[in-house]
């Protein structure tokens, strides 16, 4: 399997990303990009050929498509498929190599000094399975859901994107940290129980750790507390329901675990910059 090998700094630059849905039988487009195109399948499967090599990208897997190589769908999917995509550029020289980095210590090439920054080597697999899909999908959501109304939103997207690349490299070296394991458990618990009343004590009890330690791990790895992640996850689920159903706001609030519809509307507006009703109207106008 090939790996993309490059050195940083300068670091790769995030350009644009999104989420797409292919209905059953849909083939991926035939394209040649001048930038990298990373596709991560959240559900379903994609059949993609790059440089005449066919790949089947299943749930929890990703493929990193290289600039200048034609890629296309060689077969329609057998089920409805949802996937994330990210476009990015590597501003320095990169190579396709067959052997990647297996020792985490090898990532640092030089330590730098008072005038020279440290140098790192990355070797990202072009195709792979994500061991912690909930965690990586959280990073995707952090990239895509940054408030576009603030002037620094693209800078914050870059920070989340660099976290994403670092995580891919860590997975390639097979070294999840203790904090990442705690975060994986917390994220899994929240996603399984978000429709219920979720208390910090419940999460901590399920993981057998002190609530303060779980909170510190969440802040260190994903940059937010468990409650912040819970609210963000609930709002993302609410946006899907607003866009795909005619359910009343009160019903949607209950569906995502919030009994008080007034509080739900206030929280939604604070986090998304618009009310649930206006968000639904905006989606319908597209």
TrEMBL record:
It comes from Metabacillus endolithicus. InterPro entries: AraC-bd, Homeodomain-like_sf, HTH-like, HTH_AraC, HTH_AraC-typ_CS, Tscrpt_reg_AraC-type_HTH. Keywords: DNA-binding, Transcription, Transcription regulation. This is AraC family transcriptional regulator. Residues 184-282 form the HTH araC/xylS-type domain.
């Amino acid at each position: 399997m090939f790996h993309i090998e490059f050195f940083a700094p300068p670091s790769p630059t995030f350009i644009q990303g999104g989420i797409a849905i292919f209905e059953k039988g849909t083939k991926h487009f035939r394209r040649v990009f001048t930038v990298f195109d990373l596709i991560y399948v959240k559900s379903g499967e994609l059949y993609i050929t790059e440089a005449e090599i066919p790949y089947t990208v299943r749930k929890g897997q990703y493929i990193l498509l290289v600039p200048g190589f034609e890629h296309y769908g060689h077969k329609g999917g057998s089920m409805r498929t949802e996937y994330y995509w990210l476009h990015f550029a590597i501003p320095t020289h990169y190579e396709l190599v067959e052997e990647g980095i297996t020792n985490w210590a090898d990532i640092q090439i030089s330590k730098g000094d008072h005038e020279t920054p440290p140098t790192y080597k990355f070797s990202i697999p072009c195709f792979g399975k994500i061991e912690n899909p909930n965690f990586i999908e959280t990073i995707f959501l952090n990239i895509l859901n940054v408030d576009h109304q603030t002037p620094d939103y693209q800078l914050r997207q870059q920070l989340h994107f660099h976290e994403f690349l670092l995580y891919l490299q860590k997975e390639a070296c097979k070294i999840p940290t203790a904090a990442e394991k705690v975060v994986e458990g917390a994220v899994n618990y929240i996603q399984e129980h978000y429709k219920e009343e979720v208390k910090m004590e419940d999460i901590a009890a399920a993981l057998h750790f002190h609530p303060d330690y779980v909170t510190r791990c969440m802040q260190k790895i994903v940059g937010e507390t468990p409650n912040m992640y819970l609210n963000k996850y609930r709002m993302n689920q609410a946006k899907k329901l607003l866009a795909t159903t005619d359910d009343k706001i009160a019903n949607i609030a209950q569906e995502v675990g919030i009994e008080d519809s007034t509080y739900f509307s206030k929280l939604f507006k604070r986090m998304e910059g618009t009310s649930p009703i206006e968000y639904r109207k905006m989606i319908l106008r597209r």
